[in-house]
């Protein structure tokens, strides 16, 4: 008897702890009151509407989208060839390369942001936007390499040799045979990279300037000044966006196979 | 396996050079600042750092919270993961999905919710006053407790996922066999489950510990300036005090502790294995 | 160039990093023959095949094909076909697209493409599967697709890596006949790599037995089967009783010497198949330690004063029970003389 109840009770409690706060955020964002509170005071859509009118949110949303899409694409552009070299070639110094492309996952993001600020932005005059772009690309690179490497490992390498023996160049074999077969893995890497970059805070902390800051940093800043439910509304919207993307990916691709 | 080294290097170098230039070089430069004073190699910055009681408090608090969150995540993680792997396949997949789901949501949003829950007029205080346990609202927000709760919620999924994959690889009959041999549940866990899942525990533990130690958002929102942790202290040192040397010291401590946690957990795991 | 050296390997040496896999190999392959590279794993047969295909660059030596030096010609311009052991089909393409892959790269399109791919599919009996994705096919069908994919290219040489090893017994026989038929019809020079002597003996016109990166023996299946030149080849093709010859005596595997039953030939050793051991009478005696029934024959394990002897006798002859003492003979005339031993 006790054993039969064990699983449901544990899982219910843990899920309330993990997911409950998210529902509170969603509920609070429909509040009619002017301060963040639960249970919400009345029902209105005004805070959700307000999110779209705050100029800085719009700007920082654009920055974050640019970083998440551009940074992840760049990371893939760098990461796919590197993964391919590591999985298919006798690569000299392969351990060093592997270490280099995976360190961004080991080192705390705040340190990376600070290092870029200290050595690129301040002395060299590198623009904040570019610094953010470099930082986010570096941050996503390990994920890109890991996911793409995993799908390459599942792909037999004699397929490329077969293509070459049928007259294809090695580069041609990559595009004709390898790429079409790791498309799912690449898309999974893209989504993982996008979500990681979009939600990333520490790396961007030091990298903000006039008109250029990421959305999570902007939200943190807004919270310090105004304590209304608009951040809750924005959080809820973003959460639904992330969940929507992941669900679609899982549904159409079996995303979780790759992560 | 292709033999052409030039081709291999041409493919791998862009990523390696990028990571080296954007990442490794600046970080190493930053870390080296903490060991230098007037172009001399010295540890004086570290001596200075630890001579201030605030810094010592923050350092110990970061370690303590990291350890406590890891311990709590391990205990709750085992209970949750064991419950999940014993579910039928369909329900199991959905549960895993629900555990992973929070990881996709912005940590800012996830942490923000706790303000509503733990604040002076938050749900917890409302409930406590409603049942008459207290007349005055408790101060929960901006305490270590709030940071602990926030970190645990943030990182528990990582532990659960690591332990689920470890438990899935458990030999099917190990637990029933131990039960048949007369072991009670505590003995089963200690003698069978723990030794056989220690790698999952090490992976999960490392993720949770380093995650907690290097989290910024949670201590910033739920701890504020009252409950500084190393990351928030680092931020203050740069933005308020403009002290890059001190920031470098903190950065180095964070990196060392991350690596040390990984090595230590591996040690613990193998030590248990030998007995 | 003559037909006798259509494809020539000239002092070919191959290595993986610092590990030498093949040393100074010389081999002439005739136009239109069906050649087997036979040997245990690690003997260098697959490496040799990969070098011929151009998938690996020789350390030294030359490869000539049809009169041209192809040692430095890249793999995609050699026009050599290879059917991989795993078949290496492209899972994202249909059967038709797989077979059309190489032709399209040559710029062939339209009606000619369709005609040639259809002809290729027809020759392997897969016309009905043209639109299927390859992962949906059975192992045997996948191999036929791989075969058609290579053959539509009209390669100068077609190589096959362990072509029968992934098939079950029935399909194996079917594929064997099909490969022979295809080879006779098209006249393509075919080289296949195998570790299975039965496969090599049944399929090949000529067999190259390899050992430790060098050729141990070249010959027709009959020659290899009946006249192995060395103890290595003899062991590989089923001579289970091997004796070295030293100072006019036979030396068993355990080092025990015995006097031969007659004058010895000028050789380094002698080998008997189990069938060649005569049971019932002779100068030697052994104790039956094992009997197993093998259809038309019984196989015996005899423990003699000089070691274990494997013998085989028709079931029509009365059998011997376990632990029986049996007299036997190893007639010199029934033995294969070996030129190299060890």
Automatic annotation (TrEMBL), chain A:
Gene3D superfamilies: MetI-like
Coiled-coil regions, chain positions: none
Molecular function (Gene Ontology), one example: ATP binding
One annotated GO biological process: transmembrane transport
Compartment annotation: Cell inner membrane; Cell membrane
PROSITE patterns noted in UniProt: ABC_TM1
Membrane-spanning ranges: 7-30, 61-85, 97-120, 126-145, 186-209, 229-249
GO cellular component: plasma membrane
ABC transmembrane type-1 domain span: 61-249
InterPro entries documented for this protein: MetI-like, MetI-like_sf
UniProt main location, coarse: membrane
Alphabetical UniProt keywords: ATP-binding, Cell inner membrane, Cell membrane, Membrane, Nucleotide-binding, Transmembrane, Transmembrane helix, Transport
Pfam family, any one: BPD_transp_1
Membrane topology, as annotated: Multi-pass membrane protein
Keyword Transport annotated: yes
Record-stated family: Belongs to the binding-protein-dependent transport system permease family.
Protein name as catalogued: Spermidine/putrescine ABC transporter ATP-binding protein
Automatic annotation (TrEMBL), chain B:
Regions crossing the membrane: 12-31, 65-84, 96-119, 140-164, 176-194, 201-224, 244-265
Source species, domain of life: Bacteria
Topology in membrane: Multi-pass membrane protein
Gene3D superfamilies in UniProt: MetI-like (1.10.3720.10)
One Gene Ontology term from the biological process aspect of the record: transmembrane transport
InterPro entries to which the protein is assigned, alphabetical: MetI-like (IPR000515), MetI-like_sf (IPR035906)
Stretches assigned to the ABC transmembrane type-1 domain: 59-265
Stored PANTHER family: ABC TRANSPORTER PERMEASE PROTEIN (PTHR42929:SF5), INNER MEMBRANE ABC TRANSPORTER PERMEASE PROTEIN YDCU-RELATED-RELATED (PTHR42929)
Protein name according to UniProt: Spermidine/putrescine ABC transporter permease
Organism of derivation: Pseudorhizobium pelagicum
UniProtKB/TrEMBL annotation, chain C:
Entry's localization field: Cell inner membrane
Keywords, ordered alphabetically: ATP-binding, Nucleotide-binding, Transport
SUPFAM superfamilies, per the entry: P-loop containing nucleoside triphosphate hydrolases
Membrane topology note: Peripheral membrane protein
Entry-linked PROSITE patterns: ABC_TRANSPORTER_1 (PS00211), ABC_TRANSPORTER_2 (PS50893)
Molecular function as annotated in GO: ABC-type transporter activity; ATP binding; ATP hydrolysis activity
Nucleotide-binding listed as a keyword: yes
Broad class of the protein's primary localization: membrane
Ranges where the ABC transporter domain occurs: 7-237
A GO cellular component annotation in the UniProt record: ATP-binding cassette (ABC) transporter complex
Top-rank lineage group of the source organism: Bacteria
Family: Belongs to the ABC transporter superfamily.
Designated name of the protein: ABC transporter ATP-binding protein
Organism: Pseudorhizobium pelagicum
Record lineage: Bacteria, Pseudomonadati, Pseudomonadota, Alphaproteobacteria, Hyphomicrobiales
